[in-house]
Amino acid sequence: MDQLSSVNTTSRSAVWNTLLVSSCLLVSVGGFLFGLLGMVQTLETQGGQMAMAFETYIEEATKGSILLAEALATDKELARVVAQRDRSAAEREGDRLEQLRQTSRVDAIFVMDAAGDVLVTSNWRQKGSFLGKNYSFRPYFRKALSLGQGQFLALGVTSKRMGFYLARPLSEKVGVVVVKMGLPLIEKGLKNSISLTGRQYLLADQQGVVFSTSVADWRFRTLRPLSSIALDRVRRHRQYEGQSLAALNLPQNSTDNLIPFHRLAIPGSRAYQHLTWRPLTTANWQLAAVIP
User: Fold this and answer.
1) Edge to edge, what strands does the sheet with 200-204 contain?
2) In Å, how far are 238, 263, 290 from 272, measured between CA atoms?
3) In the chain, where does DSSP find H-type helix?
4) 50, HSE (Cβ side, Cα atoms, 13 Å)
5) Around 52, how many Cα atoms within 13 Å sit in the side-chain half-sphere?
């Protein structure tokens, strides 16, 4: 009897010990999951705040350039110079555009005729001038004439500098005026936003091409391999001419969308970082904050 009682006592003790260990494990796992959820929510909140701040900056920065393009589109003298192909007047107007460029702090201002030839440009006195170039292959040119406005992000074919092009048609559609915002103006607001929430970032266009990033190895890489259609479109528009556009192959879900939160290896670093995505509706770009 005493032996049976001892066995029962030992069994109950083992059961209680098992339950105690299981409970501790459940509490630990639960605490870990709760902590992970809290971290994700914190990162999502930080990413959202950063994206909102940058989107506001982009709206304000582009607003000035849009107003400038719209004002120049109604300029009767510019339209006359283009229509009559007045070369001496074109040089005078080019100097005026250069003064406006300096005041507005944009990268360039230029005017094309209806065939896409640049007849007036703010940089006509400089080496690498746009004067005489034809940019009819750019979407902003065709959209300005057909839809009344065009915008396009691209690496400059002549300047080799990234820019955001804003285009408007001249009176009677005799040509198109273009204001090019340089990337430093865009990145200034982005870096101010990033400083609030993280150390690294990347900014990609609607096709997933990274055009601005704090990690040099990511520039002109793609978030996923481009389809043959997308690649053909990029080549026809000469959007990133001379760049290989190799894929970063970031994780995607079953609907082929980027996973909004995951860990990412930073080139040159052994540590993994946390990456959170946000779409930017103003310019149809994608912004990722990389947060330690």
Assistant:
1) 210-213, 200-204, 285-291, 272-280, 261-265
2) 35, 6, 10
3) 2-73, 76-84, 87-104, 139-147, 183-194, 228-236
4) 31
5) 6
Supply the pTM of this predicted model.
Answer: 0.77
Residue 161 CA to chain centroid, in angstroms?
A: 15
> Nearest 5 degrees, angle CA 81-CA 71-CA 66?
120
Using an 8 Å Cβ cutoff, are 168 and 138 in contact? no
**How far is residue 190's CA from residue 181's CA, in Å, rounded to a whole number?**
14
> 213-263 pLDDT, tens per residue?
878 888 999 988 899 999 999 999 999 999 999 988 665 543 344 444 445
How many Cβ atoms are within 10 Å of 116's Cβ, its own excluded?
17
CA distances from 188 to 104, 217, 218 (A): 15, 20, 19
Residue tagged 């009344």 (tokens): 148
